[in-house]
Amino acid sequence: MRSSIIGRAVPFCAALFASLTLAMPVPAQQQGLGDSFTGLQLNGDQPISIESNQLDVDDNKAVATFTGNVQVSQGETELRTGKLVVSYTKAQDGTAGERTGTSALPGGSSQIERLEASEKVYVKSADQVATADKASFDMKSEVVVMTGNVVLSQGQNVAEGCRLTIQMQTGLARLESTDCGNGVGGGRVRMMLTPDK
């Protein structure tokens, strides 16, 4: 039985943001959903590559900002965006300590709190692609939100909306109206599923 494209998007988007948090372990719930999103294979042992035209770190505000042609990749998973902002908190004792659910930033004693990708977000893993104007991941609440002309596709299957919200703890996903303020789509979620041959 084929699961919905939104159901397959949950582990895809979750794994994307997990890869951005420097290979934090994917929760057991997401591992079970991985079977329905077969193109996704994240490996905590694989290196993560982050490239951008510029990196600004403001340690006083606990923010790292990658700007200009930002490219993040791990294995087959790739993110491209114009800007990626990583908000973090420093460890109380000032030591790097052990890596926990919200992995430490490289070379420092900090924990990732929130990720914000903006300026045309493109995510690809094998044959799955997700695009949006913006995407964010709140590490504490474990909520992924993609907004603005959200398009999820796998092969010829496509889902379109204005806002995709994924609750990673429960695996619940909600794709909302395609009327993103531009009048396109008539205010309805659209989905096109192509039968298997």
Automatic annotation (TrEMBL):
A GO term for molecular function: glycolipid transfer activity
Domain Organic solvent tolerance-like N-terminal per the UniProt entry, residue ranges: 50-171
GO aspect biological process, one term: lipopolysaccharide transport
UniProt keywords, alphabetically: Periplasm, Signal, Transport
Signal peptide: 1-23
Membrane spanning stretches: none
Pfam family, one: LptD_N
Any one annotated GO CC term: outer membrane-bounded periplasmic space
The protein, known as: Lipopolysaccharide transport periplasmic protein LptA
Organism encoding this protein: Aurantimonas marianensis
Gene that this sequence comes from: lptA
